[in-house]
Design a protein that fits this description.
The protein is built from 6 helices and no strands. It is an all-alpha fold. The chain has one domain.
Amino acid sequence: MTTPAFEAFLARLYTDAEFRRRFLNDPRQMAAGAGLSTEEVSHLMAIDRVGLELAAKTFAYKRARFGRSSSRYVKPLRAIFSTLRSRF
């Protein structure tokens, strides 16, 4: 089970390039500094960095192409977070 803080942290990782860069430079410090649990920090330490970058680029492309207000991606994003929530 994940917390809202963990989900917000993940969302920011996917959407904020500078935040993501700082996280990738020092993931433990960034995650712990966000007040996440020890378990959540551990999960973030094991994040697939290549997958993170690929997903972030894909989301940025879709936001640029279809606009931020597009509801087209709400269900897929909810499915992603639901899957992540069940895995952690």
